[in-house]
Amino acid sequence: MARRQGAGHRPNPVAGLWRALGLTAASAVVWGVAHVAAGRRAAGFTLMGVLALLLGGAATMALAFQEKLKQIAVQGVWLNVITVGILVLALAWASIVIRSYQVVRPPGLPTAMRVASTALVVVMSLLICTPFVYAANTTYVLRDTLSKIFPGDDHSGQQVDAANPWKNMPRVNVLLLGGDGGKDRTGIRTDSITVASINTKTGDTVLLSLPRQLQKFQLPAGPLRRKWPYGYTGDAPDPMHPGSEGLLNELYLQGQQHAELAPGYKKGRGGPHVIQSVIEYLTGLKINYYVLVNLGGFKDIVNAMGGVTVHIEKKLPIGGDVTPDGRVIKPPTGYLYPGTHHLDGEKALWYGRSRHADDDFHRMDRQKCLLKDIADQANPQQVVTHFEKLAKAATNTISTNIPSALLPALVKLSGTVKKGADIHSLAYNPDKIPGLHVYEPNIQIMRSTAAKAIAESDNPPKTAPSPTASATAKKKNKKRVVGVKPSGTATPTGSGGAVSLKNVCG
Predict the structure, then answer these.
(1) Cβ atoms 290, 400 nearer than 8 A
(2) Cα separation of 505 and 346, whole Å?
(3) Distance of alpha carbon 158 from alpha carbon 231, whole angstroms
(4) Are strands 308-312 and 423-427 parallel, antiparallel or unpaired?
(5) Backbone angles phi, psi at 318, to 5 degrees
(6) Rounded alpha-carbon distances, angstroms, from residue 112 to 115, 118, 120, 183, 316
(7) Which residues in the chain land under pLDDT 70?
(8) By CB distance 3.0 to 4.6 Å, which of 121, 126, 180, 479 could disulfide with 101?
(9) What gap in Å lies between CA 95 and CA 34, rounded to an integer?
(10) pLDDT at 357
């Protein structure tokens, strides 16, 4: 009888198994719980302390060193270190879970239960590793994307002193090119040409937009002027009377097709440098770097972001050929209608590229406002969720000669810009700049206009807004949708000076 009673008090392996699995699951969240329950208090509290240090350190870094982390996130060496660190942490976490189960696993389990419980713990470990592996893969993709885009297809950009990248450089001038290829075109034409001149201390920026249809302009000395001594006329049979030939947006293609126009670069690589040298000559500004965005892939970036919300001021055709007075030469496939709309990549692309409803100058304004809307509305959750799509789209869409060594400084500078720096816009519009013409433009006027805009950005005139203007602005602001900047109609510039992008885009 005593033996039977003693046998009845033996530990139940099944009940012990459920307890062990519960402690293992708890240890997956808080390291050391299983060890403490098993009487291994020193090991258990040590594991808890290590986890607390890791979590505390991560929280401190995230809260106190956000700007520094952003700069680290664009450095290949650090990204490699982070990738390895994430994988090591994943392996350590999984090992702790498995060891926790071994510590509390009850003895005497039947073979089938032992195998099943072990498999369950392994699955638990794999589930724990999944987010770490995803994070490591995302970090690797980021590093791979940066290495493919920067420094671009050559090393022609200004060399960087990593310790002091802005030394003797009060402003950095970046040529932003929007390349628009099509079925009816050979190669890419840069229909969007903008110089972003950024103050490296304050972040104040001037965007200088040049019309794509600039024609028969003078060229810098060298192979370009030797080929077109009377001004750029493209492939026109009569250089003195080019007709519709010889537009500014053709220069990129000329450089790609004719290696002799860009000495030192192979055929198919000279386009950016030909147009960069011409823009330097026309504006009088030293262009430090260029960024070329193929607008055909731009829509993929917008789609990966989940779209963009814009305010459309007037009816815009999608495709087709419609004159400003409404005469239809080729019917559009659709329209973008006035109002505030959330656009996918295809429609956002047409919002930025459509010019048949008004003119190139309004289109330049829309393009700048579209970029501003995208920057303002970028959703971190969307970026993380669709990071691989974004990375692939960026790799296929963007080319530049910005060296990777400059990325940390640019990230820091972009943070300065987003924190309230003034962004002014100046379009080389003959209707706004006295003496300027699209055909045979006066280079001295172009240069003096650029110099004046930059000087006013560095030393803005101190003018107090009138009470009436302030009241009107407040009324307008109340009517706007939060997070959306109305875009599509430029504020008149009067004498041709630069205007705040806030005024251009609303």
Answers:
(1) yes
(2) 21
(3) 28
(4) unpaired
(5) -100, 110
(6) 5, 10, 12, 65, 70
(7) 1-11, 13, 151-157, 181-186, 241, 243-244, 322-326, 356-357, 379-382, 461-496, 502-504, 506
(8) 121
(9) 13
(10) 66
Can you read off the two tokens belonging to residue 269?
């690589």
List pLDDT tens digits, range 185-209: 567 888 889 999 999 999 999 999 9
Contacts 24+ apart (CB under 8 A), 231-238: 231/440, 232/278
Count Cα neighbours of 253 within 13 Å in the Cβ-side half-sphere.
Answer: 18
Cis? peptide before 170, omega within 30° of 0:
no
What pLDDT score does 487 carry? 43
Match 């026309």 to its residue by tokens.
Answer: 282
Residue 71, both tokens: 């700069």
Q: DSSP 3-state assignment of 471? A: helix
pLDDT at 110: 86
What predicted TM-score, i.e. pTM, was given to this entire model? Answer: 0.80
The first and second tokens of residue 102, run together, are 């071994």
- Tokens read off for 287: 């262009």
Exposure letters 201-219 (e unless 16+ CB within 10 A, then b):
ebbbbbbbbbbbebbbbbb
Determine the Cα–Cα distance for residues 139 and 125; give it in Å rounded to an integer: 22
**Domain topology for 171-459+467-505:** Aminopeptidase (3.40.630)
Residue 484 CA to residue 464 CA, distance in Å, equals: 26
Please tell me what DSSP assigns to residue 439. Answer: B
DSSP state of 437: -
How far apart (Å, rounded) are the C-alpha atoms in residues 465 and 473?
10
Contacts of residue 398, Cβ cutoff 8 Å, sequence gap at least 6: 149, 291, 292, 293, 294
Whether residue 175 contacts residue 275, with contact meaning beta carbons closer than 8 Å, is answered with yes
Residue 375 tokens, joined: 């920057």
Domain range summary for the chain, segments of one domain joined by +: 10-149, 171-459+467-505
Burial of 9 (0-12, 13-18, 19+ CB in 10 A): exposed
Task: Please give the Cα distance from 347 to 317 (Å, whole number).
Answer: 10
How much is the pLDDT for 359?
Answer: 74
**Letter for the amino acid at 403?**
P
Peptide bond into 380 cis (omega under 30): no
Residue 62's identity, in one-letter code, is A
